Every structure is written in C-alpha cells, then in structure tokens.
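Cross-posting from the chemistry board since nobody answered there.

I work mostly on the small-molecule side, so proteins are not my area. We synthesized magnesium ion and want a rough idea of how it might sit in this target. Sequence and SMILES are below. Is it possible to get a predicted 3D structure of the two together?
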Amino acid sequence: MLKKIECFIQPFKLDAVKDALIDAGVEGISISEVQGFGRQRGYSEGEKPNKNVKFLPKIKLEIVVDEEILEMVTKQIVKLAATGKFGSGKIFVLPVEDAVRIRTKESGISAIT
Ligand SMILES: Nc1ncnc2c1ncn2[C@@H]1O[C@H](COP(=O)(O)OP(=O)(O)OP(=O)(O)O)[C@@H](O)[C@H]1O
Ligand SMILES: [Mg+2]
C-alpha cells in the first residue's frame, strides 16, 4: 500500500530531514516553500497576539512511500525537525490510490522503489 506524507517543517531543518529520509529508504521527495500558521497563529512566545494571523515561512515536503517504511519515515521527521519550540511543524499521512512511473509504465509500489 502506498501512503503520502505531507509535512511542514522549519526551513533550516530541511537538510537534516532530507538526509535522514534518504537513509530511511525514501526514493523521491518534492518540496515547496509555503507560508502557514498553526495554533499560535504565527506568534512566538512572549509576543502579544492580536486578531491578525501571521503567515510564517515553512517548507512543505511531499513524500510517497511504501507503508512498510511509513513509521520509520515519520519517526525520523519527528526526530530531526524538532526544535523544542512552537512551530516545529506537522505531519499529515494520506492514502494513495496508485502511482505510475511514466518512463517504464510501472505502477503501484514498483513505481516508487
Ligand atoms: N491544520 C493544519 N492544516 C494545514 N496546515 C497546517 C495545519 N496545522 C499546521 N499546519 C502547517 O504546519 C506549520 C507548522 O505548524 P505548527 O508546528 O505551528 O503546528 P501547531 O499545531 O501550532 O504546533 P505547536 O503548538 O508545536 O506550534 C504551519 O505553519 C502550517 O504551515
Ligand atoms: Mg504552532
């Protein structure tokens, strides 16, 4: 079964997370620069929140994996993206119907390994 991880991390954590994911067996990653907020609405500790939210820069990673390595991959993200502070990020896991490697026409797990 294929699963998709969509996660949001602090930009300065990208290198460490990427290296750990390659070690965990991930064969492809897409990233984008996004802006977002979580439950602090973009305010850091000590700041006085007002009713406006602040969008902060984050990196979104999209990773489709065999569910066999899902737990290891999410554990590595949690370990390496952690900052000990608010805003370290969040991981979402989604089901994936299918995948196709266009060059070879392989589908399913063969398309991502
Ligand atoms: N429910 C959500 N839907 C979509 N994106 C989200 C959601 N929650 C968080 N994000 C994204 O994840 C980023 C990091 O979220 P963040 O780590 O601040 O979550 P949090 O729930 O506020 O946790 P914490 O209390 O540790 O800060 C946000 O900037 C946003 O881009
Ligand atoms: Mg937050």
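Reply from a structural biologist on the board:
Welcome over. Reading the output above for you: Helices lie at 14-23, 70-81. The chain has a mean pLDDT of 96. Happy to explain the token format if needed.
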